[in-house]
Amino acid sequence: MGVRLMVVDDHRLLAEALASALKLRGHRVLAAAAPAAGAAELVITRAPEVCLLGTATPAEPGIFDPVVKIKRERPQVAVLVLGPVPSPRGIAAAFAAGASGYVRHDERIEGVERAIMKARAGEAAVAPQLLQGAFSELLNPAAQPDDEGQRLLQMLTPREVEVLVRVADGEDTRLIAAGMGIAPSTARTHVQRVLMKLGVGSRLEAAALAARTGLLDRAGPVPHSAPDAGPGLGP
C-alpha cells in the first residue's frame, strides 16, 4: 500500500525528481516544494503520513526548526531529513528536533523507500553507522572550537579595540587622533600595537581579519568626531 508523502527541498529539481520516482513506485506524493517560510505550514495543512524534508546544512543552528514546528502541530507526521553526509552533531540535532530518520541525498530510491516505510511504522530510519555516531556525540559531546573573534578581542585593550574599529572604517592616522582626542603620534603607536597583536602587516589585513572573525560586530560602533576636531595630547 502506498504512503501519503510530501517532498520538500530547496533544490526544486531534486524534489520533483524524487517525487516522480516515488509516484512510479505507487506512493501518493502530495507536494514537491522548495522550503520557504511557509514550508512547515504546508506540511501541517496537508498532514501527510511522511514528509521528506531536504537540507543542505544539517549542522547549522536552527535548521531543524521546521521539524520542531511540524511535530508540535502534527505529531503523527513522520519527518525524514534528506541531506548530505552529516556530522554526528547534525544527526543528533535532527533527532532532537523530532525527526524520524535521516536519508542521504545520494541514497538509492530503494533505500529512500525503505526509510519511508520504517518512518511510517514508527521506527528510526537511519543507517546504523550514522545512528551510532549520533549517540556517541550525544554521550560524549565534542568541545566547541574557540571563538576566534572573542579571542582576538580579549587580546586588545578597549582603546586598541576603538582604534581597530576606526581603521576598519577607513580612518587615517589624523582622523583616528581627532576622533579619540589623542596626538597623531599616539594614534600611530596604537595602530602599530594593534597590528602586532593581531599578527598582521597592514591596516587592510587588520580590517579584513576583524571583519572575518566577527570582531567588529562584537566591538560595536564608536563615536566619530568632525574631521577638523583638534587632537589632544595624551593617550
List keywords for this structure.
Sig_transdc_resp-reg_C-effctor; DNA-binding; Arc Repressor Mutant, subunit A; 235 residues; DNA binding; five-stranded parallel β-sheet; disordered C terminus; Response regulator transcription factor; CheY-like_superfamily
Q: Can you give a write-up of this model?
A:
There is one protein chain. The chain is of the alpha/beta class. It folds into two domains: 4-139, Rossmann fold, CATH 3.40.50.2300; 146-218, Winged helix-like DNA-binding domain superfamily/Winged helix DNA-binding domain (Arc Repressor Mutant, subunit A, Orthogonal Bundle). 52% of the residues lie in helices and 11% in strands. It contains twelve helices and five strands. Strands 2-1-3-4-5 form a five-stranded parallel β-sheet, with helices on both faces. Helix 3 (65-73) links the parallel strand 3 (50-54) and strand 4 (78-83). Helix 8 packs across helix 10 and helix 9 packs across helix 10. The radius of gyration is 26 Å and the shape is elongated. It starts with a strand and ends in a 16-residue tail after the last helix. The relative contact order is 0.09. Residues 225-235 have low confidence and may be disordered.
